Amino acid sequence: MRVLRVISLLPIAGALNSRDEAHNAKRIAIIGAGAGGSSAAYHLAQYATEASIPTNITVFERNSYVGGRTTTVNAWDDPNTSVELGGSIFVEVNHIMVEAAKRFNLSAAEHNVATRLQIPDLGIWNGKEFVIITRADEDTWWDKAKLLWRYGTAPLWTNRLMKSAVGKFLSIYDEPIFPWKSLSDVVEQVGLLEVTGVTGEQYLKANGIGEAFAKEIIQASTRVNYASNLPYIHGLETMVCMATNGAMQIKGGNWQIFANMLDSSGATVHLNTTVARISKQEDGTYVTSTSTGHTATYDEVILAAPLQYSDLVIDPAPEHVPDEIPYTKLFVTLFASPFRLDPKAFNLGADKPVPQYVLTTLPDNEEPQDNVGSPGFFSISILDQGINPHSSTPRPEYIYKIFNHERVTPKILTYILGHDVSDDEAEHGDVNGAVSWIYHKVWYSYPKEYPRVTFEEIKLDEGLWYTSGIESFISTMETSALSGKNVARLIRDEWVAKKADGELGGKSEKAEEVFQEEL
After folding, report:
1. 313 has which bridge partners?
2. Which of 29, 147, 212, 276 has a CB 3.0–4.6 Å from the CB of 298, allowing a cystine?
3. What residues contact 273, with CB distance under 8 A and at least 6 apart?
4. Residues of the chain with CATH 3.90.660
5. What SS3 state is found at 330?
């Protein structure tokens, strides 16, 4: 993989000035190096080249890494054992992700843990029993005989419903719909308001999907993907949860897609750099100020992170200010143990192994609320196997991930493993204990996907753009990347129109004056 071009904070002015040799180059600041920001940089560089418009792109990221909510950590601090902490999976209908992985020659990680361990691949647990257990060597999800026997034709009708909704969504990738200036308008145009405007529960019922399949199978999917029960997630996101064909992840971490996008764009990337303020000038440019006081001037600014979490002051307030909306507070726990999940914890016989992926739903007598409910967690999965290099004798262990609504406790770990886990182990791990390594993370992972029929503006003001409004529509790595691509194309189209009118260029001389003053 190519080395990402990263510039430290201190020489910002000098580094940027050296890259602005063409007086008429358009200067773009992108705030956020996650999926949206990386994609915006990547596609804007391509569009600008096609239009013969010189650009200088600068990306600011307050974290020490690229990828945003797509990042990895190393089990046992072993650089050869990376584990996905954030966005883990993309699927074959995620065209931008799939095409980028191919272009950058990134290899898919293996997903044969269940086969290697000779255990079922998936089980759905309702807090009392597994309502369904499937094996990886059986037919595809939609054709599994067990599902058809238990739920009749509901799986087949759900598959058709999913394909219809996803097909409408995919139409926004291409002309004449792409690029779109208003997400609200395009959702109505392609016929998806009837899907986003109701809950998953309402949408499934209106389309004749049986209650048993909805609550036991589809709700398990909305819980693992969005920590939501069916009455608290809109219909489109419910359908997205069922589009699982071709699930994959990149070996070594999905963040590599976005690192390669930034590298390919030629952008200058400033990590560990927080943009604290952007100020619109009389000539229409924007001055960005970092938390350490460095300033620079840009013709366009792309905010590629949720405004409510950016700690950003916009002066003056833009024409459109995104609403502050509730985000899910998701507790993610990664840990390693030499022990498999205890069958007794799941009311299985001692000779019945627990599946690799344990998803949860609610028992029949429990009314869904906007929380995890009686099962006590959203999902537990075995991500991989590895060798604990720090134990007294290096030993093979299983690496787990838990999604929950609260911090995982020693009691929970002791219960699911069937071995005592101390307070210290649950917090820090013990290289020779039942939990040898553990990592806790709280993510504000995605908006609560409540039903809605309007979405945030893409263009907050002249020269000021926003990618995160798409998250209340669909929140995935792919849709963030799509939003970044859409913004890039809108900017390019404006530039082309101004170029035709003879208005493009000239502002970068003002930017150069600012840099020279700082130097």
Report:
1. 277
2. 29
3. 9, 12, 60, 61, 62, 290, 291
4. 110-140+327-447
5. strand
- Every domain of the chain with CATH number 3.50.50.60 lies at 6-69+252-324+453-518
Distances (CA, A) of 303 to 36, 198, 288: 9, 29, 12
Name the residue among 31, 11, 23 with its Cα closest to residue 56.
23
- Position of tokens 């909306």? 325
Chain center to CA of 249: 12
Give the tokens for residue 346.
């799941």
Instruction: Return the CATH number of the domain spanning residue range 6-69+252-324+453-518.
Output: 3.50.50.60
- Could you tell me the strand order of the sheet in which 275-280 lies? 295-298, 286-290, 275-280, 313-315
CB atoms within 10 A of CB 392: 8
From the CB of residue 462, how many other CB atoms can be counted at a distance below 10 Å? 12
368 and 229 in contact (C-beta within 8 Å)? yes
The burial of 218, by beta-carbon neighbours within 10 Å (0-12 exposed, 13-18 middle, 19 or more buried), is given as buried
- Cα 12 off chain centre by: 29
User: Measured between alpha carbons, how far is 99 from 95 in angstroms, rounded to an integer?
Assistant: 6
When the candidates are 3.40.50, 3.90.660, 3.10.20, 1.25.40, the CATH number that belongs to 110-140+327-447 is 3.90.660
Q: 3-state SS of the chain: helix, strand, coil percent to 5?
A: 35, 20, 40
What single letter denotes the amino acid at residue 177? I
**Token pair belonging to 488:** 């890039």
pLDDT at residue number 138: 59
Separation of alpha carbons 229 and 416, rounded Å: 23
The DSSP output letter for 199 is B
Beta bridge partners of 72: 84
Q: Do residues 251 and 243 touch, judged by C-beta distance below 8 A? A: no
Pairing of strands 286-290, 295-298: antiparallel
Q: What is the mean pLDDT of each successive set of 10 residues along the chain, which is 519 residues long? A: 39 38 83 98 98 97 96 95 92 96 95 89 96 76 69 93 97 97 98 98 97 96 97 98 93 97 98 98 97 96 97 97 96 98 97 97 95 97 95 95 97 98 97 97 96 98 98 98 98 94 56 36
What does 94-149 look like in DSSP terms, one character per residue? -HHHHHHHHHTTPPBPP--HHHHHT--SEEEE-SSSEEEEE-TTSS-GGG-HHHHH
Please give the model's pTM, rounded to 2 decimal places.
0.92
CA angle at 325 for the pair 259 and 276, rounded to the nearest 5°: 55
Beta bridge partner(s), residue 301: 29, 464
